[in-house]
Description:
Elements: H1 3-9, H2 15-35, H3 40-47, H4 54-61, H5 87-96, H6 100-122, H7 127-143, E1 148-149, E2 152-153, H8 171-187, H9 193-207, H10 211-231, H11 235-262, H12 266-271, E3 275-276, H13 279-293, H14 296-314, H15 321-344, E4 347-348, H16 352-380, H17 389-415, H18 418-432, E5 439-441, H19 444-452, H20 470-483, H21 488-495, H22 507-513, H23 533-541, H24 554-566, E6 578-582, H25 586-590, E7 598-601, E8 607-612
Parallel strand pairs: 5-6
Antiparallel strand pairs: 1-2, 3-4, 6-8, 7-8
Helix pairs in contact: 2-6, 2-17, 4-5, 6-7, 6-8, 7-17, 8-9, 8-10, 8-15, 9-10, 9-11, 10-15, 13-15, 14-15, 14-16, 15-16, 21-24
Amino acid sequence: MSLKEKIGNNFLLDANILVSTILIFSIKWFLIHIYNQDTLLNKILFDYSDLYYFPFILNILDLDISPQYLDNYTPNKNIPIPIYSILLHSIFFKIFGLISFFILEFFFLFIFLILIFNILIKCNLNYYFAIFSTLIIFLLPFTLKNIDLFNINLNIISGLFSFRFPRPLVTSCFFFWGIYLAILYYKNERLNFKNSIYIGICFSLLFASYYYNFVNLILLFTIIFVFKNINDITYLRKNYKNILNSIIFFLILSIPFLLIYFSSEKDFFLLIGGIELNFEFKKKLLIHFINKIFSIKFIVSFVLLTIIMFTLLKHDDFKEKKIIKLFYFMFLASIISPFFFVLLSPSISEIYHFLNWIVITTIFVSIIYLLLVVDFVLKKFDFFSIKYIKYLFLFLSFIVILSFNFLYFDNLIGKNDKQIRKEYQNLQILVDNNNFEYLLTFIPRVQVLWMLKNKTKFNSIESSYSSLNFNQLEQNFVENLKFLNINKIDFADIISNKKGSWRYNNEFVKYFSWYKYQANSLITFKNTNDFKYDEAEFIKKSSPTKTQQIIIPQFEINRLLDLYDKLALNQDLKKPDLIVLKSDSLVENYSFIDPNIYCRLNNFKLLKIYYQKKTDICE
C-alpha cells in the first residue's frame, strides 16, 4: 500500500502531523513556563482567551444555565450558551480539572492540522509538501498579525485559527471538517450514509457554536448540490434518503441549543449586539455590502482569483478539476453569505464577522491555488523524486514550527505583563489561605479566578456571565458603587462616553450592559440622535459593522443618574469579604473604602485589594 493510500485510510493517523503538534505545543508552553514561572491557574487566566466563555464551562458542568451569583438578584431566564463549542471542555474539566485546558488545546491543534493536511492530500499535493504547506497555513495568522494591507487589518486572519477559546480554536475545527466533508461530497458521485450523518453533525455543531461559518458552509453545500443536479437530473432521486439523513441529524442535534436559545433572557440579545432587522436596516446593510463588493480592492481580488481558477481548469495537467471548482465555490459562498443572511434573517449580531470571513476565505483559497501551482511545478521538474527531498521538506517544516514559536514568544515578551501575573498569583495565595465567601470586583478576570477556585458568591457580576436583565444589572452596579461611597458627580464621569483610538468605548458601561448601547451609522439605542455634537458626527461616519462601539445617549445617561439618586443603599446587602479594584481606574479613584471595616494589602501595585477586618488591627 502506498503512503498516499495509507493516509486516505487513516484520516486521524499521521505520525508527522502528530510530531508537528507535539513540537508546536511543547515548545510554546516550555517558553511560556520559562518566561512566566507561575501557577497553572495563572497560565490559564493569562495565556488563554477568551475568558468570557470560561464561566459557561462551569455552567454546563453544573447543568445550570441560569446561574445565580448574587443573593438579592434572581435570573428568570437562561444564558444562550454556544454549547457544542464548550461541551468537550466541560466534560474534560470535570475529569481532569485545570489540566484539561492544555489537553484540549493539544487535541484541537492536532485536529486542525490533520484536517488541513487531509484537505491538501485531497488536492493531490505531494505528501511531504502537504506537511510543509499545512504548517504554513497554520503559521499564517501569527505572521500577518498587526499588518495593514489596503486599509484592512490582517489580524482578522486569526479567525482562520488561533489558540483563542472557543473561537477559533474549536469552531475552526468544526468548519474545516465541514470543508473536508464538502470535498468528499463533491468528488463522490453518491452521498453515502456515513458521510450524510457526518454532514448533519457538522452543521449542528457550527449552528450552535458560530453561525457565520454555518451559513458559509450551508451555502457551499447548496452550490455543490445545485451543480450535481445540473450534471445529473436524477441525482436527487438517487440520494434523497441520505440527504434527509443529514437534515434529520442536523435538526435533532440542534434541538438542545434551540431550547436554550428560546428560553434565554431577552435582554441578552441586546447585550451581545443583536439587531432586529426591519426593512430599512436590511436596505442599509445590503447597500453597505454592495459598496464593499464594488470597491476596487475587492474587484481586483475577485478578478484575479477568477482568472486563476479558470487558468487552472483549462490546464490539462491539473487533474483535480472538482477541487479547483470547490474552493472557488467556497469563495463565492463567503461573498453570498452576508446578503443571504440579511435577506432571510429577522435579526443579526456582530455583522463584521461575515465580512471578515470574506477576507479570510479569499486569502485561504488564494493560498490553496498557489500551493496547487507550486506542487505542479515541482512535479513537472521531477523535484519530488530527488533522493533526500522529503528530509528537506521535513526540515523546512521544523523551521516553520520554530518560526511560530519565535513569533509567539516575541508577542509574549511584548505583553509586558509580569507584574500583573505576579499579583494574580499572590491573589490566588490570598484566596487559598483565607475563608473568603463574598467578592466585590468589576474585573472579569478576577471573577473567573474566583469561579475556578470553586467560589460562587459575588456582590457584583459581569453582565455576560449571567442571565440577569438590564434593570437588575444596573441596580446592582449602582448599589455597589454606593457601597464604595462614590458620589453622583463621579458616577456621571464613570458612565460618560469615552473616545479611544478608533471607537468610543467604556469598560464600566460594557461591564453592566455590553453592546446594549452600540452606536454606528446603522443603529443607536432606540434609534435616537440624542448625543453630543461630536458623538453624533462620529456615529454618522462609523461603519454599520462597527458593532463594538459603545455610546450612551443623553436621555439614558440622565435616566441612570436619576436611578443613582433614587436607589438607596440596601442596608441588608452582604458586605464583601474581599474587594479587588483595578489601580487608577475611575471606580478605584473615586472610591472610599471604610478603614474601620477593611484593611488594604500594600504589596499590590496594579490591583487594589481590601479584605474585611477580623480584628481591630490590620495584619
